[in-house]
Amino acid sequence: MGRRAGLGTAEAEILRFIQENAPVSVRQVAEQFTQVQRTTVLNVMERLRAKGFLTRERAGCVWSYQPSLPQTQQQRSLVRDFVQQMLGGEVGPFVAYLTEEAELNSAELTELKRLVAALEDEK
User: Fold this and answer.
1) What's the pTM?
2) How far is the C-alpha of 97 from the C-alpha of 61, rounded, in Å?
3) Beta bridge partners of 59
4) pLDDT in tens, 100-122
């Protein structure tokens, strides 16, 4: 896997589509993002591959792309990177966002409570 780095908006949108529809070809992604040229889609997908978010394998005469990790693992990695890089490792601003601005549904709130309880049990 290549180096991990943050994602731009186009990279995040394309990665999300690939995570939900993998394996996919460049053509399939370009058909979904009609406002973007096919060569741009290819360049974004190759950047995602270079950053370690995607892998590819030959499927006949085209490349088939898929996430290098399951979606939940990639999301956790991105959140970890964000907290480390943008918040200096401080989780307080992230927790403040969750409590003040995020609109959590009941399932998300239940999961958050479960995670906090597990964290308390570890301490």
Assistant:
1) 0.77
2) 46
3) 62
4) 998 999 999 999 899 889 989 99
Distance between CA atoms of residues 20 and 45, nearest Å: 15
The H-assigned helical ranges of 1-123 are 9-21, 26-32, 38-50, 71-86, 92-100, 106-122
Q: How many other CB atoms are there within 10 angstroms of residue 47's CB atom? A: 18
- Least Cα distance to 80 among 90, 71, 70 occurs for 90
CB 15 within 8 A of CB 7: yes
pLDDT in tens, 52-99: 999 999 989 999 999 999 999 988 988 898 899 889 999 999 889 888
Nearest to 44 by CA among 21, 18, 69, 68: 18
For 44, counting Cβ atoms within 10 Å of its Cβ (0-12 exposed, 13-18 middle, 19+ buried), the class is: buried
Question: Helix, strand or coil for residue 61?
Answer: coil
**8: burial class by Cβ within 10 Å (0-12, 13-18, 19+)?**
exposed
Alpha carbon distance 42, 79 (integer Å): 25
